[in-house]
């Protein structure tokens, strides 16, 4: 394993709702090398998305540490963090402003972070995700789900980040479009040397994308597997085997 890009140690996330305390994440540790694609898989409510939100500073870390390139992250995150680490959410419709054109969606992060050559960067970001410049002045409602998710990916890439956090990035899309978007993400990672952490309830999706993964259940990491072990069905827990059989049509690639 090369240089560690992102390290999570003994992470706990506890939410207080009214008088109740919910331990959403319990003692989860993981480390992701530069350029690696790492998966977090589990059912709804397993805590997998909360881990991503904690890395981003969007969920409260009650114990443990999160480090980027060997430096422990402060809360709130410094502004520079959001240039280096970008997140792509599940629902591209909710994450794009309905009254902003694609051009404005892409121009905004550039303005916030003081980037130059904005025009050229917008053109480049769109072409990188396979959308022509004629998409620049369209609104989200004029785009298909797959096109909206490409815009969300372009928005994340435009700041030239080192890490992409992908929260179920294709689960709202049709199966055929899902594969297109996953292949696009794969290609971009290879071209840019990006580091990915990808969350999904679907083992097949993660097996397609990730070198290693952890399986989460009830807030805990119950198993860590490589892609090879997953393809060979070398899962050690019943829970992972159940997830395997739930990934319909899952075939070891």
Features:
4-stranded antiparallel sheet, single chain, 6-stranded mixed sheet, Rossmann fold, about 250 residues, alpha/beta
Number of domains: 1
CATH class: Alpha Beta
Individual helix count: 10
Low-pLDDT parts are none
Provide a descriptive summary of the structure in words:
The chain is of the alpha/beta class and 253 residues long. The chain has a single domain, classed as P-loop containing nucleotide triphosphate hydrolases (Rossmann fold), CATH 3.40.50. It has 10 helices and 10 strands. The protein has a 6-stranded mixed sheet with strand order 6-7-8-3-9-10, with helices on both faces. A 4-stranded antiparallel sheet has the order 2-1-4-5, with helices on one face. The chain is globular and about 50 Å long. The two termini are 23 Å apart.
């Amino acid at each position: 394993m090369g240089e560690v890009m992102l390290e999570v140690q003994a992470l706990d996330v506890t939410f207080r709702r009214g008088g109740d305390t919910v331990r959403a994440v319990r003692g989860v540790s993981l480390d992701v090398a530069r350029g690696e694609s790492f998966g977090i898989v589990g059912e709804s409510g397993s805590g997998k998305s909360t881990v991503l939100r904690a890395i981003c500073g969007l969920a409260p870390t009650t114990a443990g540490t999160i480090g980027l390139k060997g430096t422990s992250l402060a809360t709130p995150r410094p502004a520079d963090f959001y240039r280096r680490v970008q997140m792509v959410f599940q629902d591209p419709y909710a994450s794009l402003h309905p009254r902003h054109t694609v051009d404005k969606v892409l121009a905004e992060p550039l303005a916030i972070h003081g980037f130059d050559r904005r025009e050229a960067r917008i053109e480049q970001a769109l072409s990188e995700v396979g959308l022509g410049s004629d998409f620049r002045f369209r609104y989200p409602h004029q785009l298909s789900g797959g096109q909206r998710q490409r815009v969300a990916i372009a928005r994340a890439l435009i700041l030239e980040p080192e890490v992409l956090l992908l929260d179920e990035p294709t689960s709202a899309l049709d199966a055929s479009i899902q594969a297109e978007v996953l292949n696009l993400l794969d290609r971009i990672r290879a071209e840019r040397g990006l580091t990915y952490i990808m969350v999904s309830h679907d083992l097949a999706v993660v097996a397609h994308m990730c070198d290693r993964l952890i399986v989460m259940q009830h807030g805990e990491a119950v198993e860590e597997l490589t892609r090879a072990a997953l393809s060979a069905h070398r899962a050690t827990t019943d829970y992972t085997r159940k997830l395997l059989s739930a990934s319909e049509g899952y075939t070891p690639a």
